[in-house]
Every structure is written in C-alpha cells, then in structure tokens.
Amino acid sequence: MATENKVRFGIIGFGNQGSMYAKFITDGMVPSMDLVAIADIDPAKLTQIEETYPQVQRFDDYKAIIDSGEVDAIITTVPHYLHPEIATYALSKGIHVLNEKPAGVYTKHVKALNEYAKTVDATYAIMFNQRNNPLYQKLKTILDNKEIGDIRRVNWIITTWWRPQAYYDQSAWRATWGGEGGGVLVNQAPHQLDLIQWLTGVPEKVVSRVQYGYQRDIAVEDQVHAIFEYENGATGVFVTSTNEIVGSDRLEIVGDAGKIIVDDSAVATIYRMKESETDINKNMDVDGVRKLMTGQLAFEELYDKEVIQEENVWGLQHSGVLENFAQHILNGTPLIADGQEGINGVRLANAIHLSSWTGEKVSIPEFDDDQYLDLLNQHITDEGKFDTRK
Predict the structure, then answer these.
(1) Are residues 44 and 77 in the same domain?
(2) Looking at the structure, do residues 136 and 120 belong to the same domain, yes or no?
(3) Which residues form the GFO/IDH/MocA-like oxidoreductase domain (predicted)?
(4) Residues 259-286: tens digit of each pLDDT
(5) Residue 45 and residue 14: Cα distance in Å, rounded?
C-alpha cells in the first residue's frame, strides 16, 4: 500500500498531540511519511485543518478515514478510552496503528486489543517516545548489562506536572472516571510508568496511597504514592502529582554494584563499584569498621563515577518514533515500542488505583481485570456523567 517509499499517514484527533504530529510530518521531520488525511469530530477543527493543511483530506469520523483507502497507517490522538476501539477497527481493515499512550484505560480492554493484534497482518506500535530518549536508551543498556549489579531499590519522584484548575475545566471529559479514566496516572505519568518497568522490570506487587481531588476540584487522582515489590526482593517507590509548582524529577536505581541517579530526565550520574557491596561487606574487618566510624574510609575510592548528559531537542523523540514506525512498515526495522507492551503501564496504573480502593496489596501477575473494571464502573456510576464500560 505504501508508495514511493513513504507511508500514507492519517491522524485521528486534531488536538494538541495530533496538531503537533501534523507539523512534524509536514515540516519534514518524518521523511518516510506523507500526511494525507486528518479526522476530527469537531467542525471547528476541520475548518482549522482546511486552513492549515489544504492539501490534506478531512474526515469527521474515524471509521471514514480508515475505510477511505487513502491511508496506510494512523495514529490515535483521541481520549484514552477510544484508543483500543479505534486501534482494533483500524487493524481489522489492515491499517497499521501507532497508538498514543496510554494503550487504554483498563487492562481488560487492552488485553482484547493485544490478542486481536496478534491475529492480523498489520503493525501495532505505541507512542512511548521516552524510549527514544538517548539518555534512557544508554541507561537501558547499562542495566541490561548488569553494570550496577542486581537491582535493590528504585525510586522515582516525578511531580513536574503542575496543572491549575482551569486546565481541568477546559473539557467536560477531562479528569473524570467516565471520560478520561483517571488523573495523573493515565494522563501525565504513563511514560514514567512505562519507563520504570522497561528499565528495571515489572514489579510483583503494588501497595499505594492515592489522593483523589486532593488539591483540585476533580474526582480523580492528583497525588500518588506507590510502593513496588520485585521478585528478587527489591523495592520501589513511585511518587507523582499535579499540584507542585516547584516539581521534582529524580530517578534513583540502586544495585549491588552501583547506582544510577537521573535528574530532570536530562543528566544521569552512574556510580560503578570496584567491588560489589556484598563483597565489601563480607570482607570488611574491624579495622575497616574503625575507619568507617571515624570518617577515615574514603568512599570515593570504592567506585568510578560517570556523568551522562544528552541533548534533548524538542520534537525529536516523537518524530523519531513516527519515523521508526514508518521504517518498520517499509523495511522491517525493529520497533522502538511494540504495541503489546502498552499493557504494562496500564496494568500498573490500574494496580495503584485498585490498591487504594481496596486497601490491599495487589499482585501484578495475578491482577484481577474484572475486579478492577467493576470498581471503575462503580466510580463512573457515582460520577453520573458517562456510561459504564464493558
């Protein structure tokens, strides 16, 4: 279907993300794509598209753009609940899909999409642009190579999402259970929920303390504290919120043989131990303890230190995922993020919600999709603004 070594691309939803992707493509930042069509249900948006991109075909329904025969692939820049629905329909028509994050709102919906995607001959990918960040790619290699040993502790404080009340008031679906499916966990933090698992592995269990409408007049969460337990006994802490003007973005990963500290998703400091902590502990004698207690132990002699800083040019992460998606379709280039992996972040967000709703520790391998959906629908019913979900 793709012609002239380019993918004919369609954008479904012309909001902030959709309009950004349109500009990337038309500005030449995605050389293997032609933007040929955009769909939106808002007549005002269609007028804006006509004025800005007169050469692009316009549609007022997602099925119409998919059925048009004009596109090889689409991206879903629409409210989160629609991601699995639109992706499934597109895949059923042989159209390649780049799903915007998150893959969906609840695991049962995303699982159905994943299972269907395995049965069709079309590409299913997800827009995890942070996996295209050179800094995190280098850290992934360091961790996969066990350069800091087995992981013992993971902490991520990511509170740089300040949103005023006016942000939530601009759309009726925003910050609702029935319209958006949650707050900071499904809107702002999905990239970090994906990255923490991509880098350090999927946790075994989750327990959380979540505050709903804590500092904003909303029904969903605006502050989250979650504790993870890993199979090897390691622990993790994840903190996020939308009410801090002076926010923090700090990731710490501690291993038996080193430590990684990432500040502002821009600078990483790597400490590589010359001996593992286990060996140093085992081999330290009484004289070593004396030096430790009297401040004579030179800790800086125990490790090597490296600082990594990558230039983060705005737009290159997203446009890079778009180009990678196109190159996969055209030439079989491995995907940066296979769509099947989208369920990991959705399940972790669901588990954090579920733990806070039940007051219990939640198992990730044994996560109860039906229990979560039942409780989500109770929240939607209590909210009284939207239909429940299936």
Answers:
(1) yes
(2) no
(3) 136-260
(4) 999 999 999 999 999 999 999 999 999 9
(5) 7
Asked whether the predicted pLDDT for residue 2 surpasses 60, the reply is no
Tokens 């989250």, residue located: 224
Question: β-strand 96-99 against 124-126: which pairing, if any?
Answer: parallel
Residues 71 and 201 in one domain: no
The pLDDT of 345-353, averaged and rounded, is: 98
Alpha-carbon span 98 to 127, nearest angstrom: 7
Residue for token digits 């995607």? 117
Whether this prediction's pTM lies above 0.70 is answered by yes
Alpha-carbon distance of 175 to 127, in angstroms, equals: 21
For residue 1, the model assigns a pLDDT of 45
Residue percentage of the chain with pLDDT more than 90 = 96
Report the number of distinct structural domains present in the chain: 2
What is the C-alpha separation between 264 and 196, in angstroms, rounded? 15
Is residue 390 assigned to a domain?
A: no
List all residues 6 or more positions away from 45 whose beta carbon is below 8 Å from its beta carbon.
14, 15
CATH of the domain at 118: 3.40.50.720
What's the confidence (pLDDT) of residue 3?
Answer: 52
Cβ-defined contacts of 379-384 (< 8 Å, 24+): 379/177, 379/219, 380/177, 380/178, 383/176, 383/177, 383/178, 383/219
Full residue range of the structural domain in which residue 111 is found: 7-130+315-338
pLDDT at position 311 = 80
